[in-house]
Write a structure and sequence with these properties.
Layout (H helix, E strand, L loop, with lengths): L1 H25 L1 H27 L8 H23 L1
Helix pairs in contact: 1-2
Length: 86
Amino acid sequence: MSDLSTVIEVAGALSAAGGLGYAKAHSPRVFWSLVGAPVARVRFTLTYRATMDVCGLTVQPSRLRAFMVRNVARQEVQRRGSWNCG
């Protein structure tokens, strides 16, 4: 039974790979929507901050934004601390 399930799993993986290869060759729009766009989105998300920093396209946050972030974070920490102690 174990051998049969292994064969089914391998056959499923090979057919999926073959289907993607067929889609890439004969229907690039389908391949892009199934593989290309998700891969590009993940790559963009992972490398965006570093790329912008290297290119010198980052700016310091405004004082108002920095002030709000500090205050919100401090309030959340205090509330959690009071719940844990009470």
